[in-house]
Model the fold of this input.
Amino acid sequence: MRFRRKKIDKLLGEILVEKDIITPQQLREVLDAQAKEDGLIGEIIVNKKFATEEDIAQCISFQYGFPFLPLENYDIPIEVAKIVPKNVAQHYCLVPIDKIGDTLTVAMANPLNMEAAEDLEDLTSLNIQIFVSTSSDIRAAIERSYKE
Done:
């Protein structure tokens, strides 16, 4: 697993404002709410309906250099889904999407969760390559891929 550092040395809120996804006033409102609620800025922005999950995921992808992958029309092979237990996928909000050689590619809502990546490496004995996707897409992909 290669740990990534920021590709763009800007905060998520700054990137969202620069891309005209949210206004500076909305960012101030979100930061005030975050100080009171202690949540993730992206989640607060989505909950306030200032931006979509996809807007946030694409900005995180831009910020950290992880590729963005929408999953709504993506079919995950059964043999790939079996590599990661459903409870692990749900716990970390991630889904395995491909395996090539000794590398497992996963889509994660929070690509900065290094604990999840390290746990996956330990669990699978594979190298982990991370893509960014929305939590809604990941949850839907988990439901499609892990049918009982």
Summary: The first strand starts at residue 94 and ends at 100. The chain has a mean pLDDT of 91. The chain has two domains: 12-64, 78-145. The beta strands are 94-100, 103-108, 127-132.
